[in-house]
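Sample intake sheet
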Amino acid sequence: MSTDDTAERLMVDENTSNSPLFLRHKMAYIFSEQYAKNKVVLDDGCGSGYGSFHLISNGAQKVTGIDLSQEAIEYANEKYKNKNLNFIQMDVTKLNFNDNTFDTLTSFQVIEHIKEVDKYLNEIKRVLRNGGVALITTPNKQTYSPNTIGPENPFHVKEYYLEELKNLLDIYFSKVQILGVNHSKKVDNLEDSAAYSFRKNVRIILQKINMAFLFNLIPQKIKTSILRKLNKNINISDFTVSQVDVKHTSDFMAVCIIEK
């Protein structure tokens, strides 16, 4: 299992571990460590589970990862082992947990996939304890797909501008701060390269016509070689989460506090 440029599910392997796409997502979990240390955490839409494992490996008391995909949950349970970590198949709009169960909740690259966003956010609010923190990331519409009315990514239901996201989250949470997941000029140069853009556009086109499987016919050695060359010299130090130029960031990081 691997990844694609729409970030629908990231699997950590030799192709992804130094890709800008993966590192941008990993930075969200690194940033979240400060809110997860010694806390009971729900990774709400955990995908393949690498982020849940990161949190339990960096100070969280207990982590539960949930995802709608049974395949993803089976993969996570097989790959990531820790006595205080478990993975459960579950719908993020119908959480099977009691009220006030978690101290911290991470939900990265999920909200843009959700049709019933009110149910999703109400469930987050319900399962968090008083004073709990929800950390939510999503692509910035202004930079991700600025030239389309709706989402360019066929898997996305809605992409948000900064003001839209802030206004929405303010309805459900007592305090909301929107930060940006930023990257260095080195990553800009990579993402502007013809080779990177070509690969991204080909994947999106193939997915739109339900022929993404064609990419998998390319021999793995060739794909690995291409990706390593494209991602050369990119590492986690090229990514930050900050208040700098949030309106033009790649992804938003919303820090939401609940007071009941």
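Comment: The beta strands are 40-44, 62-67, 85-89, 102-108, 128-139, 175-183, 239-242, 251-257. The longest strand covers residues 128-139.
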